[in-house]
Amino acid sequence: MNQMLQIIPxxxxxxxxxxAQDLDSINMGKLxxxxxxxxxxxxxxxxxxIDLWAGATAGVKTTQLAFKxxxxxxxxxxxxxxxxxAATSIAAxxxxxxxxxTTYDHRTIRIDFESDQMTDGLEWLTVATDDGSASALLxxxxxxxxPRYQGDTHTTAL
Length: 158
What we know:
The protein is mainly beta. It has 1 helix and 12 strands. The protein has a 6-stranded antiparallel β-sheet with strand order 1-12-4-10-7-8.
């Protein structure tokens, strides 16, 4: 089983309330799919956003992508923090928006994304965030990739 997973660090834990922040880009040409886990700490202020983008190279955001996400059912450290709600769809022209910061405060967002959802010719996936009106936006992110080729070591997807 370990040969089938690739752990991809995307964003180190910090306070990202000072505007827009892009997570490290992922080369989806090397993966079948990816699960992105964004762990949130304190979130104060509404309207922070998350978007997914396709680009021809790392960091380039050419085409906004539709995606589905699931939100953990309870705050970190609580029973059911590992149980996620139903998948919610976000259209390619929309954003996941934290309309009520308390809904996302100390929760985990899970985004499952398949390589075939990428735009043709644009194999790099970038998750973009914006702090909205947040005066605190503590978060970190990792991805769990499902590589096209198995092995004890993987070629980088970053």
